[in-house]
Specification:
mainly alpha; about 280 residues; 2 domains; globular; Farnesyl Diphosphate Synthase
Length: about 280
């Protein structure tokens, strides 16, 4: 199996399941795009582990497989898997720190576990360890290390993504909302999972959306790196997504929080033109 075949499989996976990051990658230099597709395909693989298992232990077993697979890729001994083969090339050409991949996998352990988030700080830590670390590795692929900027932009995009995915996660009995906010809104987790939250849920969405917007502003205030911009471009969609989920009549269990592809593309083109998210 050739590396070109592995890269093509990764590109197809990202285009199908992670279009925001796929189109953001098209702004990267052509020789870097396959490495970004490899990274984002890996992210998709570990993110969907929780969706494919019913028991936390089974999820941990699959994530352990990925831990060992990434170690093998780093050591130049990849397993016979398209994404792992592509990751081996990423390690060979870029050499990103192994601990960043370990952090991403650890974050995904929470997805499969029966755990909740006590407060907004805990939810932000999760987003930083997943979305933020992913942006940092993508920036390393592009030749920049932008730890603080990637963390802020990643948290903004991660929080926004969780708001958009409330009905998806509720359908599998998982809450990605701070427990203290749920109590303050006089709700229960069971009500949210059942789609019966009403105005209380809108209150929670509004608070998290406002904080996501602040994180985006913090990212925009940091030093800019045009070379790393394709790694950050998904965050340019945050204002448009937040506008959707904070509409007065928005119901997450009724209204899909989606944007037409052309609007997402235009937002990324505009951000690329101005040189920052």
């Amino acid at each position: 199996m050739s590396i070109e075949t592995a890269f093509a499989a990764c590109e197809d996976m990202v285009k199908r399941f992670d279009p925001d990051r796929y189109y953001a990658s098209l702004f990267a230099p052509a020789e870097r795009r396959p490495l970004l597709f490899a990274l984002y395909a890996f992210n998709h693989e570990i993110a969907r582990v929780a969706e494919s298992v019913r028991e936390p232990m089974l999820g941990e077993i699959r994530l352990q497989w990925w831990r060992e697979a990434v170690e093998g890729a780093r050591d130049g001994q990849p397993r016979a898997h398209d994404v792992v083969r592509a990751l081996a090339e990423l390690f060979a050409r870029v050499g990103p720190p192994m601990e960043l991949f370990e952090a991403m996998i650890e974050a995904r352990s929470l997805d499969a576990a029966n755990e909740t988030f006590a407060d907004l700080a805990a939810l932000e830590a999760y987003c930083g360890q997943s979305s933020g670390v992913l942006m940092r590795i993508a920036a390393l692929v592009l030749g920049e290390d932008i730890d603080d900027l990637a963390r802020e932009a990643g948290i903004a995009y991660g929080l926004t993504g969780l708001l958009r995915a409330i009905p998806f996660h509720a359908a599998r009995g998982k809450l990605y909302l701070p427990l203290d906010m749920i109590v303050e809104a006089d709700l229960s987790g069971d009500e949210i999972i059942a789609g019966k939250a009403g105005p209380g849920l809108k209150q929670i969405i509004g608070k998290i959306a406002a904080h996501a917007a602040k994180r985006l502003e913090a990212a925009r205030a940091l030093s800019r790196s045009r070379r790393a911009l394709p790694a950050l471009l998904p965050a340019a969609l945050v204002p448009r997504y937040l506008k959707l989920v904070t509409k007065p009549d928005f119901d997450p269990f009724r209204d899909p929080a989606e944007l037409p592809l052309w609007r997402r593309q235009l937002a990324m083109i505009a951000a690329n033109f101005r040189g920052h998210i």
